[in-house]
Amino acid sequence: MTSRSLIFKATADDHNPVDGVVLRNLMQNTHMGIDECVIMKNLLEKRIKKTSADIKYKALKTVVYLSENGAVEFRMQWQRDNGVLREHTQFKGPPDALRGEVPNQRVRDEAKRAMKAIFNTDQPKKPTSFGSSSSGITGYGYAPPT
């Protein structure tokens, strides 16, 4: 499945939790390259800007999961442009008819978690190498440094 359809599936406007299989597929897509990470970041940012607190919450939850488990390049995209996350740490939406202020509080809490996840220094900083081997230079006459 494409990242676009997976993101729309993960951030559906309903009260159901995000499907773990969808999150794992999105995580695998982050390793497809930096272009895919940029596309995913832009799609998630658009979903966070929607008016529904449920969509916002699920998109933020997806950002947290992908920042903690996906390619480093995905997290780096959010580090460069995190204004929408910062804005949502102070989110004030209209109260839900049944759930009151709870959905808005969940958005604020998840935005704070997302900010922590994208700037987490405990995660590896080495960018993933797309399609290259980690063994370095190989060939006749080359000996790796000892």
Keywords:
mainly alpha, 7 helices, 57% helix
Characterization of this structure:
The structure is a single chain. The chain has 146 residues and is an all-alpha fold. 57% of the residues lie in helices and 0% in strands. The chain contains seven helices and no strands. Helix 1 (3-10) runs antiparallel to helix 2, helix 2 packs across helix 4 and helix 3 crosses helix 5. The protein is elongated and about 75 Å long. Mean pLDDT is 88; it is low at 128-135.
What is the oligomer described by this structure? single chain
Count all strands and give the number. Answer: 0
**Largest sheet data:** none
Structural class comes to mainly alpha
Helix-strand topology string: HHHHHHH
Helix content range: 55-70%
Write the layout of secondary structure elements.
Blueprint: H1 3-10, H2 20-30, H3 34-48, H4 53-69, H5 72-80, H6 83-88, H7 102-118
Helix pairs in contact: 1-2, 1-3, 2-4, 3-4, 3-5, 4-7
Q: What would you say about this model in short?
A:
The chain is 57% helix and 0% strand. It is built from seven helices and no strands.
